[in-house]
Amino acid sequence: MTEQQGTARPIVEATDVHKWFQRNEVLRGVSLQVQRGEVVVIIGPSGSGKTTFLRCLNHLEKIQSGSILIDGESIGYRTVDGRLKEDNEASIAKIRAEIGMVFQRFNLFPHMTAMQNVMEAPIHVRGVEKDEAEARARDLLAKVGLGHKLESFPAQLSGGQQQRVAIARALAMHPKLMLFDEATSALDPELVGEVLKVMQQLAEEGMTMVVVTHEMGFARNVAHRAVFMDGGVIVEEGPPAEVFEHPQHERTKTFLGMVQH
After folding, report:
1. SS3 string of 77-117?
2. Do 146 and 165 touch, CB atoms closer than 8 A?
3. What's the confidence (pLDDT) of residue 48?
């Protein structure tokens, strides 16, 4: 991280976030800051709250208490008379448009080509002219190694290619922040590398990223910070070398002992 990152306002500022599904408290007071240009990887066992927390960051899941600020703006809620009040859809959509998200499943429009998938949101959400959207889509698909697949439909692409289209689609909105929710876990093993390569390239270019992943090599080599979650709380966080080589908590040691070969 640069000195500037240490002093600038965080892109993500989550404070004491709580989330329940019925009676099950999935997030039990999660606080996390992410600085501009930082890559934070969240690891932990299934059911630890990683994906739920990520989805709360762009208000795909509603929180019950706490606060989430994206570049200084509250997403999803305003505080009125000391209580959280849900914000209007227009305000939520405005902030969400600044956040790119890549899911485990690719969620591409099956009836649209790769290029049309990437052009769709800039035209309809940002009001970008078609020619400009098309030029950017070409550039982004070339960037993710798919310049030769502009006219292909999702069904004609491998899983890894579809996920790279999904990354290009998220980047088309010029996001301040990219969220990756286990972006490689639905892929065949031989296709994982091509997606991780694109993610690593984005990290090297300074994109702010929060990544939920089981890919420990990526976490160790690309992230500025590793966060270990279990039971709905952050158990441990720090530079990846520290967390992976010298974990402080028994739960972290046990988890890493199971996933590192």
Report:
1. EEEECCEEEECCHHHHHHHHCCEEEECCCCCCCCCCCHHHH
2. yes
3. 95
Distance CA 67, CA 75 (A): 8
Amino acid at 233: V
- Express each pLDDT in 134-177 by its tens digit: 999 999 999 999 999 999 999 999 999 999 999 999 999 999 99
For residue 126, give the DSSP letter.
S
Sheet holding 65-70, edge to edge: 24-34, 12-21, 65-70, 73-74
Instruction: Please determine, for residue 7, whether its predicted confidence score (pLDDT) is greater than 70.
Output: no
For 117, residues 6+ apart whose C-beta sits below 8 A from its C-beta are 108, 109, 154, 165, 169
Instruction: Give the DSSP H/E element, type plus range, for residue 161.
Output: helix 159-171
Strands of the sheet with 99-102, listed across from one edge: 99-102, 177-181, 209-212, 39-43, 225-230, 233-238
pLDDT tens for 122-137 read: 999 889 999 999 999 9
Assess contact for 214 and 43: CB atoms under 8 A.
Answer: yes
- List, for residues 42-73, the tens digit of each pLDDT value: 999 999 999 999 999 999 999 988 999 999 99
Asked if 18 and 28 count as a contact pair (C-beta separation under 8 A), the reply is yes
Residue 19 β-bridge partners: 27
Say if CB 115 and CB 151 are below 8 A apart: yes
